[in-house]
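Quick illustration, no need to memorize.
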Amino acid sequence: MTYTSFQLVCGILFALAIVHTFSTKYFERLAHLQPRHAGLWHLLGEVEVVFGFWALVLALVMFAMEGQEAAVQYIDTRNYTEPLFVFVVMVIAATRPILQTAMALVLRIAQAVPLGGSLGYFLVVMVCVPLLGSFITEPAAMTLAALILGQRFFACGLSLQLRYATLGVLLVNVSIGGTLTSFAAPPVLMVASAWGWDTTFMASHFGWKAAAAVVINATVLSVWFRRELQALPLPLESEAGEAVPLRLVLVHLLFLVGVVVFAHHPAIFMGLFLFFLGIAHAYERHQDKLILKEGLLVAFFLAGLVVLGGQQQWWLQPVLMRMSSDVVFVGAMALTAFTDNAALTYLGSLVEGLSESFKYALVAGAVTGGGLTIIANAPNPAGIAILREHFEDGVVSPGSLLLAALPPTLVAAVAFRFF
């Protein structure tokens, strides 16, 4: 493998960013030990800041080694549609009209499940919301699921073990739950057009297997922690607060649908978002505080990943293409933990002459490993940004998350390989 000195530096910076991702808790401890610089350490301890920070370092290195013109051209030509879309869909999906509607539907379904306490409610959230991601996109499903879990369960003082187990299953279920259609999961979207995979193909080859794995993961988690979940009372509809007028709910749903339909056209969905902000401001009494800060941090994280990841093709694609169709499934799962799974499938879409078995194994492996780390799947930072306040020092331990996500990842692997 031949490479330039600049490519080697880019690879080193990417590796440092990954190490930084697993070290955020260390920076939070430094904030307590060195209060004089607490603000800086808190900033570096924000997991959403990590890739944005190292993208800045990469840009400065590129200015120094490649020159201003090359650096500006590279940054200008990156595709930032996904970060922008995730920001917009997070903010809209987290509004009171959307959230109340989702919670009401979940409660109605849960009331039909003959399980004690909040066990049925928890099971419905962990099954239905991730699968809903196949239609409203994975980032929207992640936002809704994280907000519901945060308000109804994490805020009730769940054990640390259950919190991590829930987060691990949530990330895995959302990653595979978007494969019932050809437009909702980023790694599928990267190849759907190039390989001619439509929704019918996805549902028949991926969707039913993903749905089975989602149900198994959620059921095992619910049964394992049934006593703790049954001890929590089932929420009442009256607890949702003042009802939002139906017309306003419909307007919010129309904005959400519009953003999803035009997800690949930032000029359109950003325009819709600006109109949405006007509506939200006009009817503030029916809104909670918009999660603009959380959304911007997630967008910053994903934009940094776009900038850093764009310089990793020199080593990532050869490693991927040297694998056989039998090996690539496991290889894609492993590589996804350290790179965005959409980046992996995009690299695969650039190669001509791949066998159908290789294509299937690549995408299946990429979505299966999408819950292992925060950077494995684009919606993951959104879920962690919403739920991290329920963890010590506001930090989700990457190691604990990895351990929690391994069991549901293995279930998904078995489903895609042997079902």
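The two ends are 37 Å apart (CA to CA).
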